[in-house]
Design goal:
This is Condensation domain-containing protein. This protein has two domains: 61 residues, no CATH class; 38 residues. The two termini are 24 Å apart. It is built from four helices and two strands, in the order αββααα. The chain is an alpha+beta fold.
């Protein structure tokens, strides 16, 4: 398939136009990163002041959570931008005779 058809096929596989029960599950789960920031009394916490809800002088930690979820638009952009690189990697992995160590390890893991 050409680039446009490949991108469209992949996106439709991950974000189906017709949502059946089996295909409506999230294929690419969101990425969640949790931060714990500890500070001392002498530290300048002005950059974190907006995130402190209940300031207790005995507690010196701030907890933040960042969540990132791939949406259809960002997936299309990434696939189009990195198409040649991804295609090359796929071809190396799909090559049944490839014996490079990285490809071999990847195949074994999957």
């Amino acid at each position: 398939m050409d680039k446009d058809k490949t991108v469209t096929t992949l996106v439709n596989e991950i974000y189906p136009l017709e949502s059946f029960e089996e295909t409506s599950r999230i294929i690419i789960p969101s990425t969640v990163i949790k931060f714990k920031i500890d500070y001392d009394l002498n530290d300048d916490i002005r950059n974190y002041a907006d995130y402190i809800m209940d300031f207790d002088t005995d507690k010196r930690s701030i907890y933040l959570e960042y969540s990132f979820e791939v949406n259809q638009t960002s997936l299309v952009q990434a696939l189009e931008r990195d198409y040649d690189k991804l295609k090359s990697r796929f071809e190396k992995i799909d090559d049944r005779d490839a014996e490079t160590p990285k490809v071999k390890v990847f195949k074994e893991k999957n």
